[in-house]
Design a protein that fits this description.
- This protein is 22% helix and 0% strand.
- The chain is built from 2 helices and no strands.
- The longest helix is centred in the middle third of the chain and has 7 residues.
- The protein is extended, with a radius of gyration of 15 Å.
- The protein starts with 14 loop residues before the first helix and ends in a 22-residue tail after the last helix.
């Protein structure tokens, strides 16, 4: 399990609205200008319970 905390600022994501890339390309292939990136899948039901 990964503990996540909110970032102190939004500076790391400033490239998002400034990017000229199509949003679908960013979602599928990652942000422009990076050789590699990681997508993390969040399990909406981590304990196997049905809602």
């Amino acid at each position: 399990m990964i503990d996540m905390e909110p970032a102190a600022s939004t500076e790391a994501a400033d490239w998002l609205p400034q990017s000229n890339a199509d949003w679908w390309d960013v979602v599928r292939y990652g942000p422009p200008g990076f050789d590699e990136y990681v997508r993390i899948a969040i399990d909406p039901n981590p304990h196997g319970r049905r809602s």
